[in-house]
Amino acid sequence: MKTSISIGAYGKRDINDVMEFVVEAEQLGVDHTWSAEAWGTDAVTTLAYLAARTTRMKLGTGIMQISARVPSMTAMTALTLNKLSHGRFILGLGVSGPQVVEGLQGVPYKAPLTRLKENVDIIRMACRGERVAYEGKYHTLPLPNGEGKSIKLDHVPVEIPIFLATLGPKSLEYTGVAADGWLGTSFSPDHAEAHLSFIRKGAEAAGRTLKDIELHAACNVEIGENVEEMIASRRAGVAFQMGGMGSATTNFYNDAFKRAGYADQAIEIQRLWVDGKRDEARRIVPDEMITQFGAIGTPEMVRDRFRIYKKAGVESLSLRFDNALDNKGKLAQLEQVMGLLKGLD
């Protein structure tokens, strides 16, 4: 099973420490690094830096928000990073959510899936070395009745893998149709079909199988003996996902937990959060909404969880460690994880 780490939230940590963690992670055998982009850091700058500091691991955006850039700029950025990394770049795309898209980027959060499809079409056209001419619902190139002309990017044509971070059923189906890989969040291997059934449906409609899509799933990891304490420390994060990662009407994380069988809990946690009763929202998060969406516990418990992920078809674990840990603590956890994954049956 492959492994990856995610980097971001530098406002809370020294960015140089984060970069050193990635370099050390490569030495431990980690296969991929994904750069986060929400409302603090962009997904590109650090990968350009890491392209010069690493030699083997794949470098991917996890994710570039499609509403923050026009598709042609995304293509140029992807082609540039691919050159700087000597072919190690993966383009991860996602639609983000209405609070960020409308609040920070000033773009209507309208028809996100259609916009995602058009972005993928234009980016692939540009990377193939074709003249960019496209007529979609939200993107028309060149702009009609203007002075623009169809332009071919000044790059050697190359196929850059496109991974999609999707959560909604229709978006998951499109992932099965068009993507090279999937960046999964709010995923439980105990309830894998809540996500994978839709990806499979899309893949089969396109004459593909699930094996044609590289499945990466986020996995919260913590190894230790104080299991109850570790679980309790993560209630706040789950409550924030259910109530704060989106609006009261549009929260893809909340919806994913509902499909996994936690509808009543997800709805109530969100209600309390939106009503400002956040301590109460944290308290009612059940253990299963933590333990079934990661690998937390003793080394034996964590190894058993990894087996369940593998059995569910996950090809790469996107390891998420406690952000309160410093580099030494994260590297110690990472080293344990790499040992547990060796010879996993």
Write a structural description.
With 345 residues, the protein is α/β, with parallel strands linked by helices. The protein has one domain (2-224, 295-341): Luciferase-like domain (TIM Barrel), CATH 3.20.20.30. The protein contains 14 helices and twelve strands. An eight-stranded parallel barrel has the order 1-2-3-5-8-9-10-12, surrounded by five helices. Strand 6 and strand 7 (140-141) form a beta hairpin. It is globular and about 65 Å long.
In summary, what is this structure?
With 345 residues, the chain is α/β, with parallel strands linked by helices.
Characteristics:
two-stranded antiparallel ribbon, 14 helices, alpha/beta, TIM Barrel, globular, 345 residues
Major sheet details: 8 strands, parallel, barrel
Distance between the termini: 10 Å
Strand order of the largest sheet: 1-2-3-5-8-9-10-12
Q: Helix coverage percent of residues?
A: 40-55%
Radius of gyration: 20 Å
SS field, number of helical segments: 14
Instruction: Give the rounded overall mean pLDDT.
Output: 95
Order of helical and strand elements: EHEHEEHEHHEEEHEHEHHHHHEHEH
Top CATH class: Alpha Beta
List the uncertain runs: none
